Every structure is written in structure tokens, then in C-alpha cells.
């Protein structure tokens, strides 16, 4: 079967797993609709620039996948393993990332407006200049993550941070509190205290309470 093209696009590098290769080739040939990649192994593939809007990557293995400048609008990535993946400038608007693994993922310049991130392991994630406006960040582990120059807008921000979390240039507003981990212990930080902590790290984020919204 020819690899074909999909609106002039083809993968720079196909995955190595046979079932994933077959599914991707079929989807490219059809040329319409979302990709059904539920539970498949796409690790190490380079899918940069592809239009995967409204696709299903639920529980998929996406370790070290390149999705640079890819379109994933309204896709389901719940439970997917994106460890080490590169999603630089990727569109993740309204994407479901609940229970996903984002360890050491690169999301620099990515658009996560109104995305859902519940119980996400994002330790070591690179989120420099990432747009988080309106996204739900609940139970996200941002220890050792780089959130420099990221942008928020009244986001639910019940996340875990540590002294290695970078916040220089981060802007906007969030609804805390967060869990701040230090030397094996954790304490809750919210309100003016959290604002001050972020400010001391070079960020400028207003911490609002639910009662003050609107």
C-alpha cells in the first residue's frame, strides 16, 4: 500500500510498531476524519506538522514522538504516555490529557487553551511560553518543570511545585492552592503567599479565589 499523502502531508518518520504503521497508512489514504490510535505504539515516530484534529490517542504509547507544530484540536490523549515527546508549538486546544504522562515532554510555545489536565505527571516538562488560558490543571505534578513565560487566565491550578520549578516571566492569574514540595515534605501554598512565592521566582501571576472570579 502506498503511504500516500494527507492534504500534502506525510510523516517524516513512521512508527516502528506494525499495527501503528498500518493504522497510520490507512488513515493517510482515507484523507478525512480523525486518527484512531487508541492503545497503539507510536513511539519514536516523527508526525510533525500533521493535522490530527479530533483524533483518539487514548492510552497510546507516544514516547519520544515528535509532534512539532501539529494540530490536535479536540483530540483525546487520556492516559497516553508522552514521555520525552516534542510538541513544540503544537495546537492542543480543548485536548483531553487526563491521566497522561508528560515527563520531560517539550511543550514550548504550545497552545493548551481549555485543555483538560487531571492527575498528570509532568515532572521535568518544558513549558516555555506555553498558553494555558482556561485549561484545567488539577493534580498536575510540575516538579522540576520549566514554566518560564507561560500564560494563564483564571486557571484551576491545584498542582505540585518545587524549588526547581521555573516561573520566570510567567503571567496571568490562577486559582490555587498548590502543593509546594521541599526536602521530602509538602505544604499547601495559596493566596498572597503563593503570589509572593511566584514573584520571588520572577513570575507575575495573580492568585485569585473562586469567590473573586468574574
From TrEMBL:
InterPro entries named among the record's database cross-references: 5peptide_repeat (IPR001646), Pentapeptide-BTB/POZ_domain (IPR051082)
A Pfam family: Pentapeptide
Superkingdom of this protein's organism: Bacteria
Name this polypeptide is given: Pentapeptide repeat-containing protein
Gene source species: Streptomyces thermoviolaceus subsp. thermoviolaceus
Source taxonomy: Bacteria, Bacillati, Actinomycetota, Actinomycetes, Kitasatosporales
